[in-house]
Amino acid sequence: MSIHPVAFVGAGPGAEDLITLRGLHALEEADLVLYAGSLVNPGLLDRCKPGCRRRDSAPMNLEEQVGLMSEAALAGERVVRLHTGDPAMYGAINEQIRGLAEKGVASCVVPGVSSVFAAAAALGCELTAPDVSQSVVLTRTPGRTPMPEGENAAAFARTGALLAFFLSTGKIDVLMQDLMREGGLAPDTPAAVVYRASWPDERILRGTVSDIARKVEEAGFGRQALIFVGRALAAGGGVSRLYGADFSHGYRNRLPTEAFDGRCALYAFTDKGLSRAREIAAGLGLPCTIHSTRPGGDGVEHTPGERLDEALARKWGDFDAHIFIGAAGIAVRKIAPFLRDKTSDPAVLNCSESGAHVISLTSGHLGGANRLARRVARITGGQAVVSTATDVNGLPAFDEVAAQEHARILNAEAIRPLNAALLAGEPITFCGPRAVFERHFGALSQIVHADRPEAVATARAVLWDVEGALPDGVEHLDITSKAYVLGIGCRRGVEPLELRFITEGHLSDLGLRPENIAAVASCDLKADEPAILELVEKWHVPARFYDAATLDAVPVPTPSDKVREKIGTRSVSEAAALLGAGYAPDVTAQPHLYAPKAAFGDVTLALARLPHVKAAPKRGGLVVVGLGSGAPGHLTPETEAALRGCDVVAGYVHYVDFIRHRIHGKAVIENGMRGEVERCRAALEAAAAGKDVCMVCSGDPGILAMAGLLYELRDREEAFSNVPIRVLPGITAANIAAASLGAPLQNGFSLVSLSDLLVPADEVRANLRAVAASALPVALYNPAGRKRRHLLSEALGIFREARGENVPCAYVRDAGRPEESKWMGRLADFPADEVDMSTLVLVGGPRTVLRGGAMYEARGYVEKYLEK
Length: 868
Description:
Layout: E1 6-10, H1 21-29, E2 32-35, E3 53-56, H2 62-74, E4 79-83, H3 94-102, E5 107-110, H4 115-123, E6 136-140, H5 153-157, E7 162-166, H6 172-181, E8 190-195, E9 203-208, H7 212-219, E10 225-229, E11 264-268, H8 271-284, E12 288-292, E13 300-302, H9 308-315, E14 321-325, H10 328-335, E15 347-351, E16 357-362, H11 369-380, E17 383-385, H12 389-392, H13 398-404, E18 408-409, H14 415-423, E19 428-431, H15 434-440, E20 447-450, E21 460-464, E22 475-480, E23 484-490, H16 496-509, E24 517-523, H17 530-539, E25 543-546, H18 548-552, H19 561-567, H20 573-580, E26 593-600, E27 603-609, E28 621-626, H21 637-645, E29 648-652, H22 653-659, E30 667-671, H23 676-688, E31 692-697, H24 707-716, E32 725-727, H25 733-741, E33 742-743, E34 750-753, H26 761-772, E35 778-781, H27 790-803, E36 808-813, E37 821-826, E38 839-843, E39 848-851, E40 854-857, H28 861-866
Parallel strand pairs: 1-4, 1-5, 2-3, 2-4, 6-7, 11-12, 11-14, 12-13, 14-15, 16-17, 19-20, 19-21, 21-22, 23-24, 24-25, 28-31, 28-32, 29-30, 29-31, 33-40, 34-35
Antiparallel strand pairs: 7-10, 8-9, 8-10, 15-16, 18-22, 23-27, 26-27, 35-38, 36-37, 36-38, 39-40
């Protein structure tokens, strides 16, 4: 008969799935399991085979335990001694192993997961932090089992190692005092206690050696808790070289402080400089063009010295970075005539021929010169020379953070004062995504987080993708994640899910997310492409479409004659992206492609970056905005920014009420109905006096609102002739009402106002007869007031005569507002008495369907694709 060795198995810290496979296998084969009942998870015993004897060791002394195990082993049974954690840590196994040996029974040990490592996992930290502590001491305080001479907590503390204390919670107050008094630890040394690590009732306390004992007492922790003390517990320790970008592959481009994506031009003036330029271009792995004043062979543009200025002037805007190899003075003199502004200038670097120094000259943050300098220095083995004050002081400049996060700054003039406040140590509030805050500012006590602008209590703030009004007098930097325009070219009928997977995968490859997209652009032939329309609806961004002639006028890096043969333009995705980002023939600083055309089967994608916005010199101006229904969700980011940045708000009093909570402290020009001319003239007067005025309208400002009147007054009155007027789109009532009803405007629609206050009634009647004769649905604005109802009655009669009694129709009252109500049915049953000035009436056409509580138009897809 064979005698199996007794297996001392580590059960792990508590969780059933933290026992090792080897330990679990031994447990499943055991005939007898002797376990530490007060510590081992009873769920593990359920893995024992039927008939296995299970005995709790808690009431047994050593002799009884050894006797039970040896008797079973000598009888040929498999015996497992199940310990908590790892048997090697305070497991008291030595005396058991000796006792078994005396009875002729061998032993083996199966390691387990120690509670110290489960606790470290719960803390979410590394116990060995580079440059802080590379040693861990696992120890305990003396109790009934004394500590050997020389092994005391104070002595270990003086080494600076991370200390982990077992079996010591009951004396934690004495221990902490000893660590400070005898061990020399500062009162703010981080400390943590983990109770029952990996168990369902696991709890964690964090503090310092000066307050952790009080917290443990208040929490009532007794046994089964581990104590950790040491600087390694704090965030911000040293960085391991193991995964450093220079550890084994020097050209890695995943560090945020070295990330740069763009086209680079390199300039060399000697053979040695040319060799260095080749090395840098190869290491960067980016689109690079090398210019050399000496012939350089393949891959080098020979540019004689006397023509270098001309070449630089011609190509200055074609590159995201210019890198000069040689003396810094040459670079400074060459670039001086072309520098305009830090928000739009490309990055400029100077690298010595030896590669020992790489100097960031211009556009360190938004242009990425500082990051590129660090990356080039890694390639050359040199040192990056970065002089920006925030970098020198180890602070996360706000414009640098925006650049790293691929975001767009909407008021670049605020960069300098906000960064200056950061350098001065002044309190600043960050109001925006918590993840961005934690990633960049979580370790800075001077920057606090707020969930909404109204809660800001500091004199300066950063607003990032948030809505709401700041308290009076708060200087702020406005940042949005929406910084790119995605250009799309695709075949007709591409599956919506396929297009979404391709676009989102491409964005991910570029380090971007759908949240970074401000608009989608394509050719006008795709204006009804379901896949594109579904994509923009999913991403909540606008779609912009351009005709072939407009697209073909845009210079692009990868034109296609094949595309031009098919649709009349050499480019769709690239040209559309550039147009969406602001390309215009007469603009000096043109937008650049962030990512040129990439093909994915029948889909091509290109990305253009929207420029950062810097306010024009203060001379006053008027922005006309649409508030949609007035609901917060109907305000566009542009409208939000306009309201935030203006000096004066003007509008009909009822519309101003929608946004009054957002404009505290601003001057307001408001009046009631029929005060439009007076209101618009007052707004123009304020703008002419140098104020930034925001005129608010409901819906869209260019549809039956104030935009047209403002232009009329500017044309008629000399005093206003130089006032700049800018119109920002809003969501008009027809769109809001249509969304509430379903999709009744699928094939286009006509819009007619029934108000005859400004337009003669006969003209309104003529419009009604004309649109009634068409096949288009019609949206009737201003249908009826308390006294003015005759034109509604006439309009319904005109439509009954032209389209019949059974044509679907509907109304939506207070569209988009909490009190919204609606009706759908036949024209014959239309409840005209329920209509007022807050109602929009919609009369359908021959394609309109009323079914399932929704009103929609058949688009034609079924007839074309499904009923063949």
